[in-house]
Write a structure and sequence with these properties.
The complex is a heterodimer.
Chain A lengths: L6 H16 L3 H41 L2 E5 L15 H9 L4 E16 L2 E10 L1 H8 L5 E4 L9 E5 H6 L7 E7 L5 E12 L4 H6 E5 H7 L8 E6 L5 H12 L4 E5 H4 L1 H39 L1 H9 L4 H37 L1 E9 L2 E6 L6 H26 L3 H4 L4
Parallel strand pairs in A: 3-8, 5-7
Antiparallel strand pairs in A: 1-9, 1-10, 2-3, 2-6, 2-9, 4-7, 5-8, 6-7, 11-12
Chain B lengths: L20 E14 L2 E14 L3 E5 L6 H8 L7 E6 L2 E2 L5 H11 E4 L11 H12 L3 H14 L15 H13 L5 E5 L7 H18 L2 E5 L3 H6 L2 E6 L2 E7 L1
Parallel strand pairs in B: 3-8, 3-9, 6-7, 7-8
Antiparallel strand pairs in B: 1-2, 1-4, 4-5, 9-10
The chains are: A alpha+beta, B alpha/beta.
Chain lengths: 416, 246
Amino acid sequence: MDGTRSGFSYYFMILKIAFRNTFRQKRRTILTGLAMIVGFTLLSLTIGLSDGAYGNIITMFTRNRIGHIQVHRQGYLDKPSLYKTINNASTVGETIQSIAGVEVWTPRVYGAGLGSVGEKSTAVQIIGVDVARETEATQFDQKVVEGNTLTETASHEAVIGKGLAKIAAATVGSEIVIVSQGADGSIANDLYKIVGIVESGDDITDRVGCYLHIEDAQELLVLDGRVHEIVVIVSNIKQVDKITSAIKTQLNDSTLDVAPWQVVAKSFYRAMKADQQGDAISRFVIMLIVAIGVLNTVLMSVLERTREYGVLKAVGTKPVQIFWIVVCEVVIIALASICVGAILGVLVNYLLSVYGITYPEEITYGGMKLKTLYAVVNVRCLVIPAITVMLSATIVGLFPAIKAARIMPAKAMRTH
Amino acid sequence: METTDMSGSNSENLKTTPESDVIVTEGVTKVYAADGIPVNALNGIDLTIQSGEFTALVGPSGSGKTTFLNIISGLDSPTDGKVWLAGKILSEMDGNELSDFRRDNIGFIFQAYNLIPVLTVEENVEYIMLLAGVPKAERHERVIAILEAVGLKGVANRVPTQLSGGQQQRVAIARAMVSEPAIILADEPTANLDSKTGADLLEMMRRLNAKTGMTFIFSTHDPMVMEGARRLITLRDGQVDTDETR
């Protein structure tokens, strides 16, 4: 007879047998399912916390410091120089602003110098900022922990990093003399009143950072309206690559480099990726434990039903059909476990995304201080555990399934 | 009077036997290793069973009845010798071919019923037809007819654990017969039944044998089954001791 004529009915029967078998040893099914549920939830939590932590770090790193995209004179990123400037910053900025997805742009000027407060002198990094734009782009004003932010017009004011204030024994109201080199080769020096102290979250920057109004910095460094960097903030970080390409196209200027944050902070990005790969090891260990549990229970179940598989074979069931009955049982338990695990995973990740886990002590990552670890609920924390649980359960189910398929009917029917 | 037609088969699988010979064994030997010691369960059995026979295999425990049934059905393989079933050599078939061959040619009735516990009576009976790809309407029709024939019409939706031993054995008989195989092999079919139920089932199988011409082979200790058989083969120490046709 033609086996394909009622193929659907047969596969439905296989599913029916597999489904009903899962309810025969309820305790064992529950234990198998629990192993999968715990594995799913742990994986989901690991991914949720990892993505939350890295997402938080990336947000802090980009929103507070480097922005999502930067534009420089060609070669500046590899070898920064006072002379590698963007000459028409306003035009470039306005072009960038016209691109969909760009939230705001802000120009910056950088220079190295010597800062003296009273008797104390130390190296400083001059950072010239457009106060209004910088505030909009990186919430510069919110980083001021003492005193005030810079005024929006150039007034020979300075805001210095907390670390620098400590090194130079400076306070709000002190005066700082900055000596540097102008772009025209002259010796540049000027006096600024410290109006505020900032804590950016980056210790290294805070130990040398001296923020000036961009016009004051341009005047000091004799840059004559030129800038070193244009920082771009986009509405959606996932669109960075697309917007980077759009900026390149719109600017159409081969003397300018347009780089996304992953390129700007190359070493930070690589270190973060390496950390994320390290997480894969912990995921593998979780799944190994789950897989061993599943293998044990499924193998037990097959051994207990040796006689039944012998009967199924005796009446004409093919080895491959018995194989599928066992695999279907595992898949049914895995599917149910994934549903329960998904609910638990979302719930736990959601709670941790609201309340977070507070570190006993502040930790530093990439120069940034982190106090609380927040999780996120995203597609990854559902899809990856679902695929992992299903794959590992199916793979470990193969061995018992092959064992069942190879059973010798006469021998199997002698077992009790 | 010639060869069983097995078109498309390898010529080595063919045996020139009368069409009426459904089972032919030649020097069938089975040696088991029990705790490393070889035990001869069958010692060169030569037998021919013809279509439509109602045969009982008898003999004391350990005489090789069940082993012989397992070997002629392809559930077990002989250590030596050959078995032709409907003209085909069983030992030359692979696992899938054997499954298909059993499905299409043999119905089993076991001493311990061996029903599929998670399926209802109706599903147990239907199962083999599903394997064979019988269309739904035909399956349904045949299941209803066979359950009526074995007196189980009212219990179609029960699972085996909700049935008595006699009812379970009737389901096993219905399952064995529903696809109308050429041969029914029954291993101690009345052993777990009371004498009245056993007699009823035996009578039912005799009627089916007379009506359909299927070949029935029983292994049994039951005098009632022995009495009802038209051929009685006695095995002793793995050999045919007597072979009596009535």
